[in-house]
Amino acid sequence: MGNNTHGAGIWARMSEFDKLPKALRVALANADHNWSGEQLNRVRRNRRHPHNHKVRTIPDAVAFIKQQDAAKHRADADAGLIMPGQR
C-alpha cells in the first residue's frame, strides 16, 4: 500500500475485523448497514463503556449487532432513506 495513508487506515480497520471471533465477523458481514469491527473491539475491551455488558459474550455481541442493525434499518426507513420493505 506504499505511503498511502488512506490505504493504511483500511488495513488497520481490516486487521481489527480479523481479530474478531468468526461468529462476530459473520454477523457484521451479514448486517444491512456498515458496522466497524474496530468499534466493536474497542467496546469489548473497554469494561467501562456503556455497551460493554451487551457485547461481553459472543452470543450477546451477535444479538447486539442484529438488534442495532434492525434499529438502524427502521430509522432509515422512517426517515425515507430507504424504500419500505427494502433490505
Structure overview:
This protein has 87 residues and is an all-alpha fold. It has one domain (5-78). It is built from 4 helices and no strands. Helix 2 runs parallel beside helix 4 (58-78). The longest helix is centred in the last third of the chain and has 21 residues, at 58-78. The radius of gyration is 15 Å and the shape is globular.
In short:
By secondary structure, this protein is an all-alpha fold. The protein contains 4 helices and no strands. It has one domain.
Task: Tell me the β content.
Answer: under 5%
Instruction: Please identify the structural class as seen in this structure.
Output: mainly alpha
Helix content: 55-70%
Distance from N terminus to C terminus (CA atoms, Å) equals: 34 Å
Number of strands: 0
Rg (CA only): 15 Å
Order of helices and strands: HHHH
Query: Judging from the principal axes of the Cα atoms, what is the shape?
Result: globular
How many helices? The count is 4
User: Whole-number average pLDDT?
Assistant: 79
SSE blueprint:
Blueprint lengths: L4 H15 L2 H9 L6 H9 L12 H21 L9
Fill in the keyword field for this structure.
mainly alpha, 87 residues, disordered N terminus
